[in-house]
Specification:
The chain contains no helices and four strands. By secondary structure, the protein is mostly beta strands.
C-alpha cells in the first residue's frame, strides 16, 4: 500500500491479505485503520515494513510517544 502525502510517498508492506480498508484514491487520516499487519515473505512473525521517500530519496522517520530504541524483536502496541 502507498500513501501519497503530496510531497512524500509512504509505503506500508506486509499487510495481511484481505484486511486493507482503503482503496486507491481514498483520503486517509491520522489514526485511521488501514489494515492488519501480516506475515508475508521469508519471516517468522508478522511485521510491518514502513518506508518513506521524497523525490526518490529515503527519509528518516521519527515516531512520537515511543521511548527507547526501535529494534528487531521489539513489540509496539497502540
Amino acid at each position: 500500500m502507498f500513501i501519497d502525502t503530496g510531497s512524500e510517498l509512504v509505503k506500508l508492506a506486509h499487510l495481511r491479505p484481505g484486511t486493507v480498508t482503503v482503496a486507491t484514491g481514498d483520503r486517509v487520516r491520522a489514526g485511521q485503520l488501514l489494515g492488519e499487519v501480516g506475515n508475508s515473505g521469508d519471516t517468522t512473525e508478522p511485521h510491518l515494513h514502513l518506508h518513506a521517500e521524497r523525490d526518490g530519496l529515503g527519509l528518516d522517520l521519527r515516531f512520537t510517544g515511543i521511548t527507547g530504541t526501535l529494534h528487531r524483536g521489539r513489540t509496539l502496541r497502540t
